[in-house]
Design goal:
With 158 residues, this protein is α+β, with helices and mostly antiparallel strands. It contains 2 helices and 7 strands; from the N terminus they run H-H-E-E-E-E-E-E-E. About 8% of the residues have low confidence.
Length: 158
């Protein structure tokens, strides 16, 4: 092969130049890896910050209030209180919804019928303009819930 300047290139010279070119390229790339700055890497490391979930704080009462007891006069007066038997009244046959918690927006869990008797277990709780009492059927403990006092009457003791 002849170049424009008249120098003749042989195939051996061509192979040798390719060989030396490859060696020069390997040395350049190798020096990039060998002499790179300390601590650098090809991919950045992700940094995670773990934030623990909040824990619930339970505040227990320091004193337990005693369950009130009613005298026969108080029971005869028609006062609703814990431990008193009450019956559903004034629903005109529609029944009274006993709810999962006090309030008109709470989910109904039991439908009590007019005249059905319940034992008062807890209350009162004042919500949505009503006094709410937790009731439980003496015949079936699963029939329990919160009821508005407006539809309850104390059952006199016999």
């Amino acid at each position: 092969m002849r170049s424009s300047s008249g120098i003749r290139f042989t195939s051996g010279m061509f192979v040798a130049s390719l060989f030396f070119g490859l060696i020069l390229m390997v040395l350049c790339l190798g020096s990039l890896f060998i002499f790179r700055p300390a601590g650098s890497s090809t991919a950045p490391n992700a940094i995670f910050t773990v934030i623990p979930a909040p824990t619930a704080t339970v505040i227990l009462p320091t004193e337990v209030s005693p369950t009130p007891t009613l005298s026969p006069e108080e029971m005869a007066s028609g006062k609703i209180d814990i431990g008193v038997m009450v019956q559903i009244t004034g629903t005109e046959g529609d029944g009274l919804r006993l709810r999962a918690e006090p309030g008109v927006s709470a989910a109904p869990v039991v439908l009590g019928k007019d005249g059905e008797q319940f034992l008062v277990k807890d209350g009162p709780s004042h919500k949505d303009g009503y006094n709410w009492w937790k009731l439980e059927s003496p015949k079936d403990g699963s029939r329990s819930g919160w009821a508005a006092a407006d539809y309850l009457a104390v059952v006199p003791e016999n």
